[in-house]
Amino acid sequence: MKGKKILLVDDDPVFVSAMSMRLQAEGYDVVTAEDGASAISALHQGQPDLILLDILFAPDVVHGGGVSWDGFLILEWLRRIAPLEDTPVVLITAADPAPYAERVGTVGAAGLFQKTDDLATCMDLIHRLLDEPLVAAQ
């Protein structure tokens, strides 16, 4: 696991904190981004081994609103600027995941995780995607 970098893109500071601590406790390097622009900047600093990407983001009213970013749009932009063919992307949401399930498959995401589920479920998926043995939760 040493050296595996995960980009976590989410605007929920509580989830980002909890997930970052869990990932770091299991030996991952974690880079966080709170929106699409931050995620693009993070990619310029180096290719992640896996991306955890929220689906729903609040409108950016500070910068005039405009088109709301969502995880699908962010993923499209990230793929335009970086070669992500071999980088698994797990989409995450606090909402009911059912309406997004089909779209997740069509955009080539490796999985879908609901934030209300146990983090261990997401960690199992991450370990499988990165071909690593499971580490006991701390």
Report on the structure:
The chain has 138 residues and is an alpha/beta fold. The chain has one domain: Response regulator (Rossmann fold, 3-Layer(aba) Sandwich). Helix content is 36%, strand content 17%. The protein is built from 5 helices and 5 strands. The protein has helices at residues 13-25, 36-44, 71-81, 101-106, 119-129, and strands at 5-9, 29-33, 50-54, 89-93, 111-114. It has a 5-stranded parallel β-sheet, sandwiched between helices. Strand 3, helix 3 (71-81) and strand 4 (89-93) form a beta-alpha-beta unit. Helix 2 runs parallel beside helix 3 (71-81). It starts with a strand and ends in a 9-residue tail after the last helix. The mean pLDDT is 85.
Proportion of residues in β-strands: 15-25%
Corresponding CATH superfamily: Response regulator
Radius of gyration, rounded? 14 Å
- Second-tier CATH architecture: 3-Layer(aba) Sandwich
What is the CATH C-level name? Alpha Beta
Percent range for helical residues? Answer: 25-40%
Number of helices: 5
Distance N terminus to C terminus? Answer: 16 Å
**Helix/strand order, N-terminal first:** EHEHEHEHEH
| Total strands | 5
Could you describe the largest sheet, including whether it forms a barrel? 5 strands, parallel
Total domain count: 1
Question: How is the largest sheet built, in terms of strand order?
Answer: 2-1-3-4-5
Mean pLDDT score, rounded? 85
Q: Sum up the overall morphology in one term.
A: globular
SS-based structural class? alpha/beta
Low-confidence stretches: none
Quick overview:
The chain contains five helices and five strands, in the order βαβαβαβαβα.
